[in-house]
């Protein structure tokens, strides 16, 4: 029998970073301290969403609200927000952050953009 490990990391200075990964299928949110150690996280599966409901904006708002609740319990006051991906969780994250009541220092879009893309297929010979 394994027992659940107690989380010992908290936001010592009250500052942290929030990473939102919004894919077409689900949304993940991760909270780290200033040095990059993961303190808490939340996803659609942990919030109780299954199947097609994981990709809805409503699921994304409840995921982010749950993550913010966990982070506030661990002494989070101010945030740097990093949003990645094209999914419906992007706009939902912005709406939740507006009403969260936390001090938001920065919002950055870190979605990877290809500079030249993949190599195209060779031309078909008939």
Automatic annotation (TrEMBL):
NCBIfam families tied to this protein: PRK05309.1
Keyword Ribonucleoprotein on entry: yes
Domain of life: Bacteria
A Gene Ontology cellular-component term: ribonucleoprotein complex
Pfam families linked: Ribosomal_S11 (PF00411)
Alphabetical UniProt keywords: Ribonucleoprotein, Ribosomal protein, RNA-binding, rRNA-binding
Naturally occurring in which organism (per UniProt): Candidatus Collierbacteria bacterium RIFCSPHIGHO2_01_FULL_50_25
Protein's name in the database: Small ribosomal subunit protein uS11
GO biological process, one term: translation
InterPro entries documented for this protein: Ribosomal_uS11 (IPR001971), Ribosomal_uS11_sf (IPR036967)
Function summary: Located on the platform of the 30S subunit, it bridges several disparate RNA helices of the 16S rRNA. Forms part of the Shine-Dalgarno cleft in the 70S ribosome.
Family recorded in the similarity comment: Belongs to the universal ribosomal protein uS11 family.
GO molecular function, one term: structural constituent of ribosome
Oligomer and partners: Part of the 30S ribosomal subunit. Interacts with proteins S7 and S18. Binds to IF-3.
